Fold this protein.
Amino acid sequence: MRSYRDLFRTPEFTPFFLSSAGLTVAQTIGGLALGTLVYRATDSPLLSAVSMFGPQLAQVLGATFLLSGADRLPPRSTLTGIGLSFAAGSALLALPGLPVWGVFAVVLLQGLVASLGGGVRWGLLNEILSKDGYLLGRSVFNMLSGLMQITGYATGGALLAVLSPRACLLLSAALYAGSALAVRLGLTARPPRASGRPSAAATWRTNRLLWSSSPRRLTYLGLWLPNGLVVGCESLYVSYDPRAAGALFAAAALGMFAGDVTVGRLVPAALRPRLATPLLLLLAAPYLLFALHPALPWSALLAALASVGFGASLVQQERLMSLTPDELSGHALGLHSSGMLTMQGVAAALAGSVAQLTSPAVAMTVMAAASAAVTLVLATARGSRSAGRAAEPGPGPVPQPESAPESVPVRRSEREPS
């Protein structure tokens, strides 16, 4: 599969694509509205950041107890249910008089529900597309995410100027419901990818299996940590400049779109593996300049430039898929998604705490410096491991894990995704 035309000629890709577009716009409008609502009520950078990125904190619970459902539940029904539950949660958040603790209770429940979404969604994409089409397809979804975030944040910022945050939350609920309807009507029913009942024990066994490989561990850490720490910078846009937060989010989404187009479509396959570390450093470096309190045009430019570095995730996902058996692809991608979102929630809370003690600009600089440092440490670890392998006399036998998930055979795979 070599072109975007080939992708959209693939049966079910277009309705799947459109449902994801509605989901992303709903998330951006709803997140910006909720962050603004909480900041106006509390004047707290910490609570504002956690309200926007708090659902991610619950992802660690989902990854621990629920993630086996990513391959053991029918994908169409599961995605439809997730969309409807988010529609109900957003409508609940729009209720007048809902206390702050009630807001965070709903946010926690939404995070638990969403913990299944990444594994089910990207595992389904792996089924809809051929093996050679996954990277191109995922890059299109990442570009879609960038465009829809631009649309969502720009629209959300404009709507918040004329409507209340609660009205914007109700619009978000309607968009979630529309996305669920698109999934239900546009996709065919498929059986689960793996047999057996979803359970915490099955989740733990598969997590241990995926984590037992050192190359996969380093890939997961590269997907989770630098990305999450920079999202901590983004979580402070509302408190950094409340009137221009929508513009900053839109600029960051534009940069992410540019990075995904470049990495997914323009960079030769032979060059992609070398770009992960440079892109991750680009992701962090521009935020170091926020300590200087740049004016809006410059801060938007820095946010856009930094977000080009999110293209590193495509390179890392490609590596992860090459290291993962096909029958575990949904769980592996779900673990990536849950771990990444969990780290984003943790980083948002950490960034908000630092901003509470200092200022949003100082907190952004601290988080960016931590992201760059982690990137360099992981690059050094990968380099040391590669050097160690080169020094070994021979490959030797391939160790197999002690136990595998029920009904899922263990085999070596040829590729590893990011």
